[in-house]
Amino acid sequence: MLARLSPEFPALTASKLRFLEVQGIVTPVRTESGYRKFSSGDVERLRTALTMQRDYGIPLARIREYLEEQGDAPVPAAPASIVQTARRYRRDELISAAGASAGLLNDAVSAGLIVPADSYDERTLGLLRSLVALEAHGIQPRHLRSVRQAAEREISLIESAIEPLRRRADAGSRARANELAPELARRIDDIREVFVATALERLAP
């Protein structure tokens, strides 16, 4: 699988593949020896998921939902139905689309996970849907403050790293800083995914 997809996605690792499997993006068959056996359909599902993450910043929960909607049908590498629709949601529409309660949204706002606004984007919808799923297992928005705080610390690290480029007067350096920021963020994501995948393996029976 890595050999098939690494040319397109150089940052892809075995740990990230396991993480995507845990997240329900793909479900490979297990052999009697316990090895994962990926089908051609699995390859395309992973290619679609990785493309949507890398090129469009679509939340993983929304990607999983899209793939589930497709079922066994072939999935396009760039699903225009998602990436070309920059829909905005009013508060009541957001709550309805996410299957959330008004109380959960209020708690998310109070915990600093969602910024109150007149309308909300797809990313916020994906976040609220994840909060709904976590709430079903007793994980409340207030329990996730540390996740937000960790993200803020990561942004501080990235800002410090690109600050020398931002200080320069030439446009090329500023452009490089803008390119470098998401690249550094992806690297930090890769490290986090390794830690999460390793921890999940310890939980497996």
Total number of strands: 2
Q: What number is the mean pLDDT?
A: 84
What CATH architecture label of the largest domain applies? Orthogonal Bundle
- Global Rg: 19 Å
The helix-strand sequence is HHEEHHHHHHHH
**How many domains comprise the coordinates?**
3
In helices, the fraction of residues equals 55-70%
Q: Which range does the strand content fall in?
A: under 5%
Shape descriptor reads globular
Largest sheet: 2 strands, antiparallel
Point out poorly predicted stretches: none
CATH class category label of the largest domain: Mainly Alpha
Strand order of the largest sheet: 1-2
Number of helices: 10
Intertermini distance: 25 Å
List the helices and strands and how they pair.
Blueprint (H helix, E strand, L loop, with lengths): L1 H4 L8 H9 L6 E2 L5 E2 L2 H17 L3 H11 L9 H4 L7 H8 L3 H9 L11 H14 L9 H23 L3 H33 L2
Antiparallel strand pairs: 1-2
Which keywords apply here?
mainly alpha, single chain, 64% helix, 2 strands, 205 residues, Multidrug-efflux Transporter Regulator, Chain: A, Domain 2
Protein described:
With about 200 residues, this protein is mostly helical. The protein has 3 domains: about 1-85, Multidrug-efflux Transporter Regulator, Chain: A, Domain 2; about 85-140, no CATH class; about 145-205, no CATH class. The protein is about 65% helix and about 0% strand. The chain is built from 10 helices and 2 strands; from the N terminus they run H-H-E-E-H-H-H-H-H-H-H-H. It has helices at about 1-5, 15-20, 40-55, 60-70, 80-85, 90-100, 100-110, 120-135, 145-165, 170-205, and strands at about 30, 35. The chain has a two-stranded antiparallel sheet. Helix 3 (about 40-55) runs antiparallel to helix 4 and helix 6 (about 90-100) crosses helix 8 (about 120-135). The model has no long low-confidence stretch (mean pLDDT about 85).
